[in-house]
Amino acid sequence: MNTFTFEQQAKFFEKKLNLKTDSYLDVLGEEHDYFFMVAGANRNEVLLAFREAVDAAIENGETLEQFRSRFDEIVAQTGWDYNGGRNWRSRIIYDTNVYGSYNRGRLMQHLELAEAMPYWEYQHNECLHPRPEHEDWDGLVLRYDDPWWRYHYPIKAYGCHCTVVAHDEDDLQTYGKRLQTAPPVEMETKIVGTRSGNPRKVTKAKGTDVGFKPWDFGKIKSGRVETIDQILFNKMVAASQKTDISNQFLSRLTSNVLDNPNALNLLNQSMASMVEQVVGNKVSKGVTKTVGAIPVQVLDKLDSLKKTPQTPFIAVRDEDILHALRDSKQAKEINLPVEFWQNLPEKLRKPKAILLQPNTSKNGKAEKDSLLFIYDTDKGKVAIIMDYDVKLKDPKTGKKVNAQVNMVRTASVINGELDWLNLKNSFELLWGSLD
Questions:
Q1: Domain residue limits at 64
Q2: Could you say which of 222, 239, 268 is where a domain stops?
Q3: Which residues are in the Phage head morphogenesis domain (predicted)?
Q4: One digit per residue, pLDDT tens: the chain, 435 residues?
Q5: Within this chain, do residues 256 and 386 fall inside the same structural domain, yes or no?
């Protein structure tokens, strides 16, 4: 490759969020569309340095050798101890991110122009270790909607330099090409994660590498996957259950992620989608979304009161949204507007005050402590039950695991001065002001 870059490639790459990892298996399939990672780069200074280097490579159209100079500087400055040889490792990072973002941007263009240029041609380009299957597919012409492309639109393997060219009818005649029959998609099973002590079976298409899953063109055309924001939060929730990482650290990490406007926008979009489904269909589907974290100052106060939660993360279920927006509350004019729920992740970052409602007994059963997030402009309050038991999907194994989060259960309007006075006199102020 000489130098190539184009606007959609750069736009696609700049939307990615940095994610520290221990292994290339920490980010799989569609997750590559959302997270920038370098396998084994589990320190912020290393990850940020490589992010800047890849950003520059894409924006400036830098060659592999130019990137290697940056690679050497990063290793010297950070002392990063990586696996593999210098040339191999630098090529993998360069190829995966530069070629990957280029082809992902090109795919977005091809899908937009699919009706006008419906014939896609696979092109194998030279690389260090060419795969026989990719060489065999060179020159293959199929319609854009052939299922074969879901598995093999590049890149689907590390170090792959293959690309796709789109044609219309005139192109096929001009270049003497013809529409062909797709080769069969052959699946195979591999054992991965042996060295990390977490071996498991993964099924993939031949000619692809583990970590590259089939495309979902429908989701790509309609925008980013609306549930992908949950992947990062689920990873952090799982980490909080299994390690001695402090709540304060996880809260700061969440806050840092959501300081990125792209990340907060993703989360708001995902939340809005769930609310629209609830409002439109009047039913819940058992969906749970993680929407934020308890602020560090509140966690410190809870620690001093010996009411430390198991995790800092805040979640919401579609059934609770349905309950909060039910007609009976609307009739009494005590429900918060739909727009509030659609922007709940952003709202949780900007309360006027946060109060503690200590546990009480109800029907002989002890209730859990709750937090009340108070909003002045919206004249509302959000009740969050601490340490609520839920099941979350493990992003690696796909299995449901037990976890505890702080669950948003309801929200309502603060009705007049009496309600404000009751909040001041009945609950302990953890953060902010009610004046």
A1: 7-222
A2: 222
A3: 50-164
A4: 444 444 544 444 444 444 444 444 444 444 444 444 455 555 555 666 777 777 777 677 778 888 888 889 888 887 877 777 888 888 877 877 777 777 777 888 888 889 889 999 999 988 777 889 999 999 999 999 999 999 999 988 877 888 999 999 999 999 999 999 999 999 999 887 676 566 778 889 999 988 788 888 887 776 544 454 555 555 555 555 555 567 887 788 778 777 777 778 878 888 998 999 898 888 888 888 889 999 999 999 999 999 999 889 899 999 999 988 875 455 456 678 889 999 999 999 999 999 998 876 445 455 788 999 999 876 788 989 888 877 766 655 666 777 788 999 888 888 777 778 888 888 999 999 988
A5: yes
In terms of domains, do 148 and 297 share one? Answer: no
Per-residue DSSP letter, 24: G
Residues 287 and 324 reside in one and the same domain: yes
Q: What's the pTM value of the predicted model, to 2 decimals? A: 0.54
Within a domain: residue 307? Answer: yes
DSSP state at residue 66: H
Q: Which residues of 5-29 are buried (b: 16+ CB within 10 A; e: fewer)?
A: beebbbebbebbbbbbbebbbbbbe
Q: DSSP state, 30?
A: G
Beta partners for residue 71, in sequence order: none
Q: Are 67 and 53 in contact (CB under 8 A)?
A: yes
Residues 202 and 278 in one domain: no
| Structural domain contains residue 50 | yes
Take residue 356 and report the two structure tokens written for it: 């503690």
Beta bridge partners of 206: none
Query: Residue 283: enclosing H or E segment and its boundaries?
Result: none
Comparing CA positions, the residue from 143, 148, 81, 83 lying closest to residue 117 is: 143
Same domain, 309 and 388: yes
Closest CA to 369 of 352, 382, 383: 383
If asked whether residues 275 and 242 sit together in one domain, one would say yes
Query: Could you tell me if 278 and 217 lie in one domain?
Result: no
Last residue of a domain, one of 222, 245, 277: 222
**Are 312 and 299 in contact, with CB atoms under 8 Å apart?**
yes
Residue with tokens 């959501």: 258
319/204 same-domain check: no
Residue type, 168: D
